[in-house]
Automatic annotation (TrEMBL):
The protein's Enzyme Commission number: 6.1.1.9
Protein name (record): Valine--tRNA ligase
Subcellular location: Cytoplasm
Top-rank taxon, per record: Bacteria
Classification via InterPro entries: aa-tRNA-synth_I_CS, aa-tRNA-synth_Ia, Anticodon_Ia_Val, M/V/L/I-tRNA-synth_anticd-bd, Rossmann-like_a/b/a_fold, tRNAsynth_Ia_anticodon-bd, Val/Leu/Ile-tRNA-synth_edit, Valyl-tRNA_ligase
Gene: valS_1
């Protein structure tokens, strides 16, 4: 037995007839949940003879209320946890929340804007106090919402990604990776959000096919030495971003393209700004795109950045971090990037340098949080070399250490890891894990440290400053399976409960989170953080459309539970889902499952009423002695159901398991067996009433 610290009293049923005729979930759910939690029933029960079953809850962002994605996560994980708990396994479900750097800072900044101020006016310290006020409010709200969902997690082990222990883990990982040469600082093209005013990783950018224009522009060629008079020669390029012409420092052609063989090495003139730029040969140029010649803007495009590095081309930044044109843009300085585009094209048209403009679909990068169009810019940021971490993570799935369900996501996982880019981990925010690096302006040295630095270890100067940036949110959550258990300290929980058994989450964060957790677990713990990855699909509306506030089709799980009960929502989510596939949330199904919960209530009420006089109470299933053909039939059907549902849950086929339970209870038990029992009991004495 587990130790009971404080127990909510549950009054035994003494008057069966007084039970309501209809199930009233609001009168039952909260009372029983308190009984379970306060009785300590969600804590793991030591069982040295069996391997622990451990799940780490995907931590919701502390930006607001839980949504249906959290509801299906809680439902499926609770099914697994309760199943293994009933099997006698030592079961641990670790709950927690994520500080959600950009998202949370954006929410609080909007609140400040409504008050007529901003974070720069209030200062860093006061701003962080406001964020912590927000976090404390929503952390407790999220925990209460998970309780409403019936999540049987061990709340005594609840974690937050900015807890002291998890912050210690973050620093240890940063310093260790830096010491291993896997973390570095450098100038590279990054994704920059002009709204969030922060760098983003590739995974935080949504590429949306957007109608745009492909503009064909002529660049005059500088006459060859000794060449005078004659018609001006031109080379033509095609671009979807004419405003970046002002930052061109080269034109590239494929060395195999016969059209440009004699132009390689010539000098072209950038229109308006009159900059002389070389024509270079580079195999990165696609022969079939546009004119076959491409403008090279190393400061505003990642491919151009690489071409520029190979040919020693200068980097001229013409778009600033505020998305306005810089002084390098000449007459367009200070204009918004799109205003400058419009004005430049008009000027080029007047100069006779526009050949044609075609409609063209552009895969436009947008910030995942603000939906602002991302600007590729050169910036000095912190990066992690990912390939050394990605290879072991790829092999873990390839050679069977980890199983992904459904298996078709193996290819998705492999493709990303095989083509992975270095991870930009620094963010120009105030909310989050501050980068543990200190700079000394006296001697110019940099110090990376696990502990706060008060004096420069190189020269002793106390006038040092910590890096202003914070780490990407995912830098803390990729440590989740082991940081929540006490790492880097060698705790008893870490020894007993790592690795986890299952990582259950949505397929849409297989890159952001799942693959990164595998990398971190293998690198820092020596083995994979879990043996199974179960990926559920998205919850869509009844029409199959993705839920969004702009469509006004968002369903609040709390409203559904208030109206129909938690069981109705959970059973609908569980039985509407199959591994890795999106599901439609249909009102009729929720109503049907509310009726199913009511059917269970009514059947239970009937059994309690008709067996109230049995001495010794109702025996367990194992102790029952069938007395009729109907008894033997229902026990046989029940045994078959038990075997089938056990297999289905072991195979993660939760939806089919739920459907079979529904069919058995509604049809076999209620429609057939209970009705037969009613007839049999009409002439029987009370001692014969042994089975219902």
């Amino acid at each position: 037995m587990i130790e009971q610290e404080k127990t909510t009293e549950i009054t035994p049923i003494t008057d069966v007839a007084a039970l309501p005729k209809a199930y009233e979930p609001q009168a039952v759910e909260a009372r029983w949940y308190r009984f379970w939690e306060e009785g300590g029933y969600f804590k793991p029960r030591p069982n040295p003879s069996r391997k622990p079953f451990v799940i780490s809850m995907p931590p919701p962002n502390v930006t607001g209320a839980l949504h249906l994605g959290h509801a299906i996560t809680a439902t499926l994980e609770d099914i697994m946890v309760r199943y293994h708990r009933m099997q006698g396994d030592e079961t641990l479900w670790v709950p927690g929340e994520d500080h959600a750097g950009i998202a949370t800072q954006t929410v609080v900044e909007r609140l400040l804007a409504k008050e007529g101020t901003d974070r720069h006016k209030v200062g860093r310290e006061a701003f962080l106090e406001r964020v912590w006020q927000w976090v404390q409010q929503y952390k407790s709200r999220i925990q209460d919402q998970h309780r409403r969902l019936g999540a049987s997690c061990d709340w005594s082990r609840e974690r937050f990604t900015l807890d002291e222990g998890l912050s210690k883990a973050v620093r240890e990982v940063f310093v260790r990776l830096y010491e291993e040469g896997l973390i570095y600082r450098g100038e590279r093209i990054i994704n920059w959000c002009p709204f969030c005013m922060s760098a983003l990783s590739d995974l935080e950018v949504n590429h949306v096919n957007t109608p745009g224009k492909l503009t064909y522009v002529r660049y005059p060629l500088k006459p060859l030495d000794g060449q005078t008079g004659g018609a001006t020669e031109y080379i033509s390029v095609a671009t979807t971003r004419p405003e970046t012409i002002l930052g061109d420092t080269g034109i590239a052609v494929n060395p195999k393209d016969p059209r440009y063989k004699d132009l390689i090495g010539r000098i072209a003139i950038v229109p308006v700004v009159e900059r002389e730029i070389p024509i270079v040969a580079d195999e990165a140029v696609e022969l079939g795109f546009g004119t076959g010649a491409v403008k090279v803007t190393p400061a505003h495009d990642p491919v151009d950045f690489e071409i520029g590095a190979r040919h020693n081309l200068p980097r001229v930044q013409v778009i600033g971090f505020d998305a306005r044109m810089t002084s390098e843009a000449g007459p367009y300085m200070g204009q918004d990037r799109y205003e400058a585009r419009k004005n430049l094209v008009a000027d080029l048209e007047k100069m006779g340098l526009i050949i044609k403009v075609e409609d063209y679909v552009v895969p436009l990068g947008r910030c995942q949080r603000s939906d602002t169009v991302v600007e590729p810019l050169i910036s000095k940021q912190w990066f992690i070399k990912m390939m050394p971490l990605a290879t072991p993570a790829l092999n873990a799935v390839k050679y069977g250490q980890i199983k992904i369900i459904p298996e078709r996501f193996n290819k998705t996982y492999f493709d990303w890891l095989e083509n992975i880019h270095d991870w930009c981990i620094s963010r120009q925010l105030w909310w989050g894990h501050r980068i543990p690096v200190w700079y000394c302006d006296t001697c110019g040295e940099m110090t990376v440290s696990r502990e706060d630095v008060t004096a420069c270890p190189h020269c002793g100067n106390t006038q040092i400053r910590q890096d202003e940036d914070v780490l990407d949110t995912w830098f803390s959550s990729w440590l989740w399976p082991f940081s929540t258990l006490g790492w880097p300290d060698n705790t008893a929980d870490l020894q007993r409960y790592y690795p986890n058994a299952v990582m259950e989450t949505g397929y849409d964060i297989i890159f952001f989170w799942v693959a990164r957790m595998v990398m971190a677990g293998i690198h820092f713990m020596g083995n994979a953080p879990f043996s199974t990855i179960y990926l559920h699909g998205l919850v869509r509306d009844a029409k199959g459309e993705k839920m969004s506030k702009s469509k006004s089709n968002v369903v609040d799980p709390l409203e559904v539970m208030d109206k129909f009960g938690t069981d109705a929502l959970r059973f609908t989510l569980a039985t509407s889902s199959t591994p890795g596939n999106d599901m439609k949330l249909i009102d009729e199904r929720i109503v049907g499952n509310r009726n199913f919960a009511n059917k269970i209530w009514n059947a239970s009420r009937f059994v309690l009423m008709t067996t109230a006089g049995i001495s010794g109470g109702i025996p367990t299933i194992d102790a029952l002695q069938p007395q009729t053909l109907a008894d033997r039939w229902i026990l046989n059907r029940f045994a078959r159901l038990t075997k089938s549902v056990t297999r289905l849950i072991d195979e993660f086929q939760f939806g089919e398991a739920g459907r079979q339970i529904n069919d058995f209870f509604w049809s076999d038990y209620c429609d057939w067996y209970v009705e037969i029992a009613k007839v049999q009991m009409q002439g029987m004495s009370r001692p014969g009433r042994t089975l219902l």
